[in-house]
Every structure is written in structure tokens, then in C-alpha cells.
Amino acid sequence: MSLIINIGSIWYYFYKFNDLGVVITLILSLFLTYILIYFSISGGNQQGVLSSSSSFFPPRHSVAKAGIERELESRISSKLFGLFLKIILPLITLTLFFILFQILFRSGSLSAIASPWQFLPNYFWIFLWFLLVALFVDFYFKSKWSYLFMTMIYFLFFSISFFVYKIAFGYDQLLHQRALADILKFGVMEPKTIYYLGQYTLELFILKIWPFSLETLDKLLVPFLSAVLIPLTFIFNFKKRGFHKTIWPLLLFLILPFSIFTYTVPQNLAFLFLIILLIFSFNKNFIIQRFNFFFLFSLALSVFFIHPLAGVPAIIFTFILFISNIKNNGSLLKTGKWSLKFNYKLLNALKYLAYLGQIIILPILLIFSGGRFSISNINLSNWAPRLVGQESVILNFIYFFGLNKNWWLLILFLLATIFILKYRLKELKIFYFNSLALMLSYLLSLFIDFPFLSQIDKGSYAGRILILSFLFLLPVFYEIFICLIKKVKSEKIFFKIIILIFLSALLLVSLYLNYPRKDNHFNSRAFSVSSSDFSAVRFIESVKENDNYIVLANQQVGASAIKEYGFKRYYGPWLYYSVQTGGLLYDYYLKMIEEPSRELMLGLMTEVGAEGAYFVVNDYWWGFTKIAEEARVEADLVYSVNNSKVMIFYFKF
């Protein structure tokens, strides 16, 4: 997959993605894959898995089990209990999965969605809790179905948005879908850029060889690949460390923030490939084979082609890992008695320069992308501690974590730091130092302002760097989880049951917090694209007097127009729909929402040279009735779409 992305991206960038490109990409990918596998096997690679003795922690003698645990183990040998574990329990688990996916499928909606939890019934959570209990029993008794069930629970957690949001989870998805449709039709989309190529190439390759719907593939890509590749890669690399050191850490990872795997955009796909790179890099038996670095650098290059914001740190990290590997082995290349050696001081200098680059390169790239250094840009309001309100016990428990997420992230980082200092694990230091470097990069990026973006979007780039920093800590968290699991295994069964009950609660809380919410503690104002938005766009196109018009609407309506009609007309740098936050048309749209004015619209039309203008208001706007009444007085024509779910006001000279 990595080679398909790399070869296809290069082919598309210098030519176009057509049937010839698919054939060449496939042939070269298969050939290079064969070469990589051949040299890995000939180099003595043991399929990249760690031996059972490769744990960083020495084995401990098992604590004598309590009588009740011995009784349980003796019952396993009985035929009746064996039948329950091998057949009945897996069937119960599969049935619960089937029920939950059926609930999700039936809860999908074409309307404007603020939170998926508004469309899921309360009994969804009851069935999910029973499923978690069944999984705990499966995992405790090492069911042969455990790895399949782990992939299924990952997909269940990651796919809520796929099932509930029938059109798209966010407006960004529609923009990428339109770009993909244009490339499929014309073979190219101008102007060509180095970013996003990786995702486009992968999706186009799949669409060329498999009869998928573009929309379905695009929505499903990241949730499905994440649910399959993360457990599969983890199991491939760490299965020999033991069942409990593989399955339980995988489950515990779901209590960490995972919203980046719930919908498809290039940045999230890049995060996924970065995690795969980090998991392979954490396998010391894999990286000891020098030829495997071709695979690691290929993965890093794939991350870069998907999104450079994650790709640049991935490449730097792989370079640092390669230098460390050379230092540990004493030479770059050995063939018989001949070897190519590097100066030790030079390698150290290169490594320190690479760490420096990890700190400063992303802020520099952000400045080159239009950002500017500004001390006044710092906003520490998100770090203010927040107390829960006088709501239900369940909501208070949930938002004890949700409202103070930045502080919990800081605690996790400090916990990782203490763990590194206490155990002095050499293999983890490279991940921790890269995380620390990116944390410093994040702090620098807080001083970079983007005047052309809306206030909501200004901190998005810094937030992505913070995510990158924590992704590099995943190997550290894995070893922390291993320590916790060892501690719990030595306790009595009553304590284990209490821990599993608490873990099930944490998993439910994690799932709830990783999707948009609308409750008494939090009100998500980011509505999804709805069928009414498409109806409004088509209606405007049907009643237009000519093509020289502009539309002031929210981003959801603008994304619908792009999905339906493409990027067909610009007024200077501005698309004819106000989809660009911080742009001229979007600024006027916000002014019209605040106080509808005919003079304001005529002034904008004069400035851009348009003959007509449409002002579109969705019914979920706060103060919708007031806005509509005031705009009705100012407009030349008024239209209602889908039983007044969308109001359209037309202005002309």
C-alpha cells in the first residue's frame, strides 16, 4: 500500500493518473514488494516479530492464584464450560456486534447533525456494555476469536460517523470527493500540489480496480483502514510477547483520544500511516535488519505525500532511527570482511541537528504557508481548569475528563516522562525525545497567527502538531499499560472485576467524548452537511438569472455547491460561494447574519463585480426567525426550501 501511494503520487505529480498510471503503479509496487520481502528473508528477518523474551521488563514469578481463580480454571477443562467458551460465548459476542451495527445502520440521517448521539437510542449503550463484558471474558480466557473481535470493536468505535452521517461527517470530505471526481474524469486537477496526493492516489487506485462508490470509499477509508491496520500491525509485531501483552494494550488504547480515526481527511490518513511506522519502529527485531529501513522510509514518504505536516516529522524520525541503528551496529554496511563505517562524532552531530529540525521545521513551514509570528496570538483559555456542573452523575463523570482534556494530556505527558526517567528504557528514548521535540514545536507554533483564517481555524495547525507529539508517545504508553496489566494480573479476582467495570466505564466515556456532542455540558455548533443544503444549492442554480452571482452561506452549503458543481467560478481569489473562512465573502456572510442589510449586499456585489447575490440561512442558526424576518424586508426575492429548513434571500441591483 505504501509503494502504491509513493509511486502513484510521483506518477500523478509529473503526469496524470490514468489507466496507464494504474498499471505501472501496480507492476512497480509488486516488483519492489517482492524485492523487499526477498532481501528481508535472506537477511534472516524473522517476520518482524519480537520473541517472547523481548519485553523490556524481566518476567516475574506468577503470584499464587486465589481459590476462586483455581476453581474457574478447573472448570475450563470441563466439556460444558469448554463448549461455552468455544461456541456459545463467541456466538453471543457476534450477535451483540450484529445488533449494534444494525442500530448504527438504522440511525443514519440526511439532516443537519450536531451530534451522532442525538440519533442513537439509549439502548445502544446497554448493548455496547454487554458487548464489552463479553469481550472481557473472551480476552481473559484467550479465545481464538479474540483478534477478530478486537478488529471489530475498533471498527465499531471508529465507524459511528460513517453510519450516522449519511452525506458526510464534515464539509472537508465533500471538497476532497469533488477533487477525486475531477481527477477520475480528467486525469488531473490543477494546480497540482504535493500535499493530499497520497490519499488521492490510494483512493483512485482502489476505484480503478474495484467497483466502489467514490462517496462510500472516501467516507470509509480511514475508519476501516484504522480498524484493520492498527490491530494487525500491532499483533504482527508483538504477538510473540504474549497474548495478554498484545490484546489488553490494544483495548486500553481505545481509552486514549481516537477521533482522528473516525472520518476520512488526508491529515487523519497521514496520522494512521505514522502510527504504523511507529509500531514497526518499536520492534527491535525488525529494525535490527538494516534492509527493513527501506520499508520504514517508504512509509515515511507515504505519510509525506498524504500530508506534509505529519510527513516531515515522520521522515526526520526515521532518519534519527537510522542513525541510531548505525551507531549501535558500528557500520552502515557489512559484506564479508568489508564494511562502510561512519565517524561517531559526525553521527552524533547529525542526530542533534535532526532533533533541532524536528523542533523548528514545522513552525517554519507554517510561516511559509502564510502564517506570521505574533506574541499576541497566545490563547491560554483552554488551559483554565473547569469544574463540572450540577448535572447527572453520568454527565459529571464524563465531563470530569472531557472539560479538562488539556490537563489530562499534560498528566499523560508527565506520566510518560516519569516512566522514562524511572526505568531508563533505551528503546523508548528515541520516541520520547521526538515527542518532546514536537511538543516544543507546538509551543513555537502557538505564536504563529493566520490572519486569513477564522478565529475557530487559527489554532488548528498547532493542534495537529500537539497530536503528532502524543502519537510518538504510543510506544511509551504501551509499556505503561504492560506494567499496569502485570500488576492487575497479580491481584485477586475481585479486584480484577472492579478494574474491568471501571475500564468498561472508561471505554464508554471515551467513545462518547470522541464524537461531537450536544448536551447540558457541551453544545457542538458544527452541523454536518444535510440534504437541505444540496436542495438549496440546486434551487439557486435553477432560478438564477445568469452565472454572474455570488452566494453568502455557511460552509456546509458552500461544500454542497462544490460537490455538486465543482470549483467553477472565482471572483479574484474568492470562490463564488462563501466557503473560505476568513475570506471576503465569508466575512460579509457573518455581517449579514449579525444584521441583514441591502446596502451591505450591494456594496459587496459592486466590489466583486457580481450582478446578483443570494443570502442563505439554515434553520439551526441561533436567532433564525429574527434573521429571516429582517432579511425578508431587505431582499428583492425570498425563497423557502424543504419546509423552511433553509431560507434564501435574493438581492440585485
Fraction of residues in helices?
55-70%
* Averaged pLDDT: 85
Structural class: mainly alpha
CA-based shape: globular
Tally of alpha and pi helices: 27
Q: Note poorly predicted spans.
A: 45-66
Gyration radius, rounded:
27 Å
SSE map:
Layout: H1 2-14, H2 19-42, H3 67-76, H4 79-106, H5 123-140, H6 146-158, H7 160-164, H8 171-186, H9 197-209, H10 214-238, H11 244-252, H12 266-281, H13 284-287, H14 293-306, H15 308-329, E1 333-335, E2 338-340, H16 344-368, E3 372-373, H17 393-402, H18 405-423, H19 426-445, E4 448-449, H20 460-471, H21 474-489, H22 493-513, H23 531-543, E5 549-552, H24 555-565, E6 570-571, E7 574-575, H25 584-594, H26 598-608, E8 612-618, H27 624-634, E9 637-641, E10 646-652
Parallel strand pairs: 5-8
Antiparallel strand pairs: 1-2, 3-4, 6-7, 8-10, 9-10
At a glance:
The protein contains 27 helices and ten strands. The chain has 653 residues and is mainly alpha-helical. The protein starts with a helix and ends with a strand.
